[in-house]
Amino acid sequence: MECQGLFRLLFELCFVSGFMLSAVAAGGSVGINYGRVANNLPSAVKVVTLLKKQGIDKVKIYDSDPAVLQALSGSGISVVIGLPNEQLFATARRQSAAEEWVSKNVAKYLPNTKITTIAVGNEVFVDPHNTTRYLITAMQNVHSALVMYKIDDKVKVSSPIALSALQTSYPSSAGVFKQDLAEVVMKPMLEFLRQTGSYLMVNAYPFFAYKDNADVISLDYALFKPNAGVVDSGSGLQYTNLLDAQLDAVNAAMAALKYGDVRTVVTETGWPSKGDENETGASLANAAAYNSNLVRRVLSGKGTPLRPQTPLEVYLFALFNENKKNGPTSERNYGLFFPDEEKVYNVPLLMAKSGDDHKGSSPPVDVGSAAGGQSWCVASEEASEDQLQAALDYACGEGGADCKEIQPGASCYDPDTLKAHASFAFNSYYQKNARTTGTCDFHGAAYVVSQLPKFGKCALPTGF
Ligand SMILES: *[C@@H]1O[C@H](CO)[C@@H](O)[C@H](O)[C@H]1NC(C)=O
Ligand SMILES: *[C@@H]1O[C@H](CO)[C@@H](O)[C@H](O)[C@H]1NC(C)=O
């Protein structure tokens, strides 16, 4: 909806190429939720083609639809499938039901369809049908079935929780689970996850927190834009974005139960591109900013303040706008794509093919040696036009390089070559990111130099 000013300029000028860049920095991974509560989506086969075109190699679905699992066969895309809440009771009641389900929905498709995890139920604690009491037994039965089929080393079992499972989430260090869940459900679940080498699935939406508290939460903080940050009064840790704070509230709640060692994966996060009037913050520009900056933040490889060494694993919500979802307008507008496969807005997905896919062609440059003094980031001689264009699009994305100066008529437009513009953008991005490791890579399209490069009459920004 809103697409104005500088954002609009960058949006139109910098996102001209549909080409998506692969992983930039080591660490972190980004997948996407392929929800299908809609009557106008493309066929599963077409969707798999779309995923591959975008470089997306991790997908999560909410069921075990045969057409989808068949279409994913041989694609190399890994998939999290779902056992719906309605089946928790039956799965918990009889081990044989779990075995049948695993046989029909998992074993049958392996290994051609790369099923990596089964989400047993979804946000079960807020299911109005009170299925929470069946959850742990259902998870155990599904795991036993995987053991029986000897696929428990390939397929993990978990269950996505909503942030509403927390009693307290602010400050993050005070995070605890609700009393009626902590001992009865969370403890046995975390014990199960630890013993089976699995992880906790968390659905986290800074949008909800912002929408309801826009008077006290800054939009920049919610959208990963530069902001003053928030210091956690308990831990003294500094938070620069709301998602990190939300995740650390969960991490703190796990640690309070002595399960701080269990991994977490963000199985859903997103921002709607449209909403009702009372849904503060729902807009195209904000959705584009949230998702672009999120991808960038994840691929930086940084963990949260509480778990700084653990890169984030995140599944965006969602692939498509879903027209049959109930609730406010926002519910039908979380998609990155319209059903006709057109983009709702542009997100350089940079899909993390395991995050370290550096078959790039940059000459060997010792970044360390340049880091002490001045250094600049420039386009590689060996990068192809496609590579440069994709990297340029990425660098100029929301919150990235300052690309105003290379627009027609601006001071750094000349020399008007792709390589020069790319160098300008790469360098701006590099300097803005404090010249940290990984911010001058662009999948091998760029490299660091310690001599001020020639760039026509325009002075390359030096940052420091
Ligand atoms: C769910 O549980 C609550 C409280 O435990 C109870 O009040 C409610 O009637 C139950 N609903 C169903 C559908 O069983
Ligand atoms: C928000 O607006 C929608 C549409 O106008 C309305 O149906 C809904 O009840 C409102 N919600 C709240 C919490 O006021």
UniProtKB/TrEMBL annotation:
Can you supply one Gene Ontology CC term for this chain's record?
plasmodesma
Question: What does the record give as the reaction this protein catalyses?
Answer: Hydrolysis of (1->3)-beta-D-glucosidic linkages in (1->3)-beta-D-glucans
Under the heading Pfam families, the entry gives: Glyco_hydro_17, X8
- Keywords from the named record: Cell membrane, Disulfide bond, Glycoprotein, Glycosidase, GPI-anchor, Hydrolase, Lipoprotein, Membrane, Plant defense, Signal
EC assignment: the record states 3.2.1.39
GO MF terms listed in the record are: glucan endo-1,3-beta-D-glucosidase activity
Q: InterPro entries this protein is in?
A: GH (IPR017853), Glyco_hydro_17 (IPR000490), Glyco_hydro_17_plant (IPR044965), X8 (IPR012946)
Enzyme's top EC category? hydrolase
Cite the X8 domain residue spans from the record. 375-460
What compartments host this protein?
Answer: Cell membrane
Q: How does it sit in the membrane?
A: Lipid-anchor; GPI-anchor
Q: What is its main location?
A: membrane
Q: Name one GO biological process term.
A: defense response
Where is the secretion signal located?
A: 1-26
Q: Member of which family?
A: Belongs to the glycosyl hydrolase 17 family.
Its protein name is: glucan endo-1,3-beta-D-glucosidase
Organism, by scientific name, is Amborella trichopoda
Q: Specify the taxonomic lineage.
A: Eukaryota, Viridiplantae, Streptophyta, Embryophyta, Tracheophyta
